[in-house]
Amino acid sequence: MPQPSTDTYKISRTTGVAVVVANMVGTGVFTSLGFQVIDIQSGFALLMLWAVGGLIALCGALSYGELAAAMPRSGGEYHFLSRIYHPAVGFLSGWVSATVGFAAPTALAAMALGKYAKSVWPALQPEWLSIGVVLAFTAVHAMSRQLGSRLQVVVTAIKVLVLVAFIGAGLLAATPQPISFMPTALSWQEVLSPAFAISLVYVSYAYSGWNAAVYLTGEVTEPQRNLPRILLVGTAAVLLLYIGLNFVFLYSTPLDKLKGQVEVGFVTATQIFGAIGGQLMGSIIAVLLLSTISSMIFAGPRVVQVMGEDLPTLGGLAKLSATGIPVRATLFQTALTLLFIVTSTFEQVLLYAGFVLSLFTFMTVLGLFVLRVRQPELPRPYRAWGYPLTPLLFLLLNGWTLWFIVHDKPKESLYGLVTVLVGLLIYFVSLRRQPTE
Which of 12, 107, 197, 266 is surrounded by the most beta carbons within 10 Å? Predict the structure, then answer.
């Protein structure tokens, strides 16, 4: 397979952090609170959701940092699970990453952008806007890695600054609502309830993306040293942003106005700043979602590319352009994204994606223990801080959430498992078609 030799541009630590932050801060934090307040009424329990979700993400980032430093190759879970368990398990995770991990969240971000934009400009056709934005960013990232990297840093920096300004302005201008953020016996009961576990699905989805940089490992400058730092800095920054944003949402807006709403940011901004301020914030959030869409189109195709390098039947998707960009894999992911946009509702995609993504991150962190037992001599430039407690905490909290999803949301769980089974079928068909040596 011909490989490019002229493009030596590498992704810096700053760009890596920008990719992590942009992947995380997007659809989830601006949409999921409306679903959480339907079953949870305590301000303390609602903020605990975001604190626990952030703790899970931090523990996951610590674990992934060790795996990425020990096995520095692009592909994320696909590469890790292929090495730790079996190539079939790695393929399934890659299949899920391609179909659910990136295409579905890209579609969600684009759909949310359309909804926010329509709340400001009612005559707008949100679906056409979503499609147009996805196609525009696909064109940018298919042309130049350097241009895509610089664009990512700029739009992510703007996103963070705007959100920090919104938190500060909200705290100063909001009329406090009669909601308590202090722990009580009743609020602790809500924390330990099935509703809390199910709501963690929405929160975990909002935090998904903390592992985004591992999909670009082969393109990061000094990955063994920089990747753990990228994962930790990006995740910690988002944890602080999320708690601040949700505190402002709850502090300023009656729960009845938030219930069932997708455009939580627009509702809150309207409550704080009035109709004009709400429209302004709605348009700003729509613009901020551009960063999320861009980062997922940037990172996701690298998974499909690595899968194509390992499986000859998918070799066409591994081919790189003259500048080292997996253009075919990018177009494949874009096609899946557009399919989600035109065929599914926002809520369907959100629940379906949350379960399957949690399942494979669980298996990856569990693989940290497996790898330490099977290959204790493997060089580990970075070792997970707090091992074995931090990965165990991740597994316990993530496993608790998965159990309640299977118990209380069997339909969404079944759809997720069917997706995995389809991937398994594709894997074995591709093996049968491989030429024998």
Answer: 107
Whole-model pTM over 0.90: no
What is the reported pLDDT for 366? 94
Q: pLDDT by residue (tens digit) across 336-357?
A: 888 888 876 666 666 666 777 7
The whole-number average pLDDT for the span 271-283 is: 82
Q: Which fold has domain 13-431?
A: Amino acid/polyamine transporter I (1.20.1740)
Contact 38, 259 (CB under 8 A): yes
Contact 116, 270 (CB under 8 A): no
Confidence category of residue 4, pLDDT binned at 50, 70, 90: very low
Q: What is the pLDDT of residue 1?
A: 43
